[in-house]
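Notes from the 1:1 (GR / supervisor)

We went over the backlog. Supervisor wanted to see one worked example end to end before approving the batch request, so GR pasted a single chain during the call. The sequence is below; no edits were made to it. Supervisor asked that the structure be written out right there so they could see what the output format looks like.
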Amino acid sequence: MLALIQLMLLILNILWWIIIASAVLSWLFAFGIVNPRNQFVSTIADFLYRVTEPLYRPIRAILPDLGGIDLSPLVVLLGIFFLQQLIVHSLARVLLGY
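Structure output shown during the call:
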């Protein structure tokens, strides 16, 4: 059971860093620092888009349009944080018996 919980926390942690990488890459594209026509960069951007877009889409449908500002990564990161905290505190309750 502990191994399953650790695996869930690891997956959430990896997803956290994928979302951070996606946000940073989008900023690099927006400021013209990275060339999106580069094959390697394009492959990484496509991977990050395919992983994060299913998480962002439902949130974007709920959030109001703020022009060029996309808050969906922030909402997903907050959700991951609260889910991790819920898992850790639930595990602590079970192990410590309170």
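Supervisor's comment: The helical segments are 2-30, 39-62, 72-96.
Batch request approved.
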